Amino acid sequence: MNVRPTEPGQPQKPGPGRLRESPAGSPARPVEKAPPAPEAPARDRVELSEAARELQAQLGLDKIPVSELPPERLREILDRLKQGYYDRPEVRDELLQRLAGDLGIEPTES
Question: What is the pLDDT of residues 10-43, one digit of tens each?
């Protein structure tokens, strides 16, 4: 094999082992792969063990509904929280009375 360096400004001459054009059917440039499609965002998951499910059943926690309130009512409550409605003394006292009654305990005076 005879290797001759090229000089600046001198075009390379075709020779054995050099092709001026790509062979038929092959691309002239390397094919770039498309970037992979973005994956769906990961979501959190919770998996309970069998022991946790048994404990939940023993305590009766599996019978507690996730929410008995409709979404509209929950939004109304959230708006009231943001506006400070529940920070008023008379509202706090009423809430204390109701929660104590639901829990079957005697409320303390505030």
Answer: 666 666 655 555 555 555 566 667 777 777 778 8
Separation CA 16–CA 20 (nearest Å):
11
CB neighbour class for 50 (10 Å; exposed up to 12, middle 13-18, buried from 19): exposed
Both tokens assigned to 32: 């770039």
> Is the entire prediction scored with pTM above 0.70?
no
Using the predicted structure, report yes or no on whether residue 79 has a pLDDT greater than 90: yes
Find the radius of gyration of the CA atoms of the chain. Answer: 38
Domain boundaries, the chain: 68-110
Q: Where are the alpha helices (DSSP H) in the chain?
A: 50-59, 71-83, 89-103
What is the predicted pLDDT for the residue at 50? Answer: 92
DSSP for residue 28: S
